[in-house]
Design brief:
single chain, 405 residues, Alpha-Beta Plaits, DNA polymerase, domain 1, Dna Ligase, domain 1, 3 domains, 5-stranded mixed beta sheet, DNA/RNA_pol_sf, DNA replication
Amino acid sequence: MVAERTILHLDLDTFFVSCERLLDSKLEGKPILIGGTTDRGVVASCSYEARTFGIHSAMPMKLARQLCPEAIIIRGNSANYTQKSEEVTNIIKEHVPLYEKTSIDEFYADFSGMDRFMNSLKLASEIRQKIINETGLPISFGMSKNKTVSKVATGEAKPNNQIFVDYGTEKPFLAPLSVKKIPMIGEKTFQMLNNLGIRKVQTIQEMPVEMLKKAFGKNGRTIWQKANGIDNTPVIPYSERKSISTERTFDKDTIDVEKLKAILLAMAENLAFQLRRGEKLTACVTVKVRYSDFNTYTLQSRLPYTSADHILIPKVLELFNRIYQKRLLVRLIGVRFSHLVSGGYQINLFEDSEEVINLYQAMDKIRDKHGDRAVLRAAGIEARTISRFNPFRGEPPPLLANRRS
């Protein structure tokens, strides 16, 4: 007989807001908005107190101010949030043999089989309490037999609590909840379900799966399975070595520093686009230079989680300036972004202006439709063969490895 799986889902409560409250206790109990601080800004995150006014993430800051004039508005501090996220990660890493970091503030852990040695729920509770005690951050968790039920349970446990869904009780637990609570159901799917008169999970549980497939295509089966508490998705081991990169090997070694910088700029710009398209963030940038004598040098730098060109490109050029040895012919250059996590959308909302956010979105939309070289900085035109490979979609990498110009 195969033992039941035991999956833990951990989620830091209003993470950005909680980090700010650690720095200023006067913010406790007050409506807080994190994001761009001008009227042209966008809300990246908000406290529970602010949500009672109808405020939500991605709302224009001007509208949020109108809904809650007394709200305290704070521009996001990526460096602080990155540090606190790593503190939580290190605690989980100490106690859990298999865990997955799905975003800056969200984790899964596989406790399957651990009840033979210790009580999984007791251990999870102790880990949660240690995170609260050592970091000062509130955190909630859900535990069940799979990722879907555990994630829903975490949502029901919030704020700052925990729920265990015992084996065999998954369907009764999910049944009375809104269909919007099912992971993967966004606003559009929610409205489609409402139009069909489907508002509670129980209704989906009682429907023939074929009916959902007719209405939603291949996603219909997935919705039906999740509503019935069926999910065999594994916990994917987290590794900070996870990265995306690109390199250029020259047919003829070069000493043209302006050309080298232009190519590095284009590489960084393209990789940043790949991050945003895959909804990822990087916390580590590496630049690689190989000279004509085949001596190879790399230099890396940690930085707050980001996927923004205007942060990553200057960092790449800064590292190149530090590593480059003048008067030596260069054979190869490369850029790598590593320590990747999900969750790029909220971090990007820290930009002060809605125009900057809209500019990124507009450029990325053009690149998605016409290719990732359709829009680029003039300084990067020198790099003609930057890859179109998307590492987050599982496409073959025809151009991501060494290219010869």
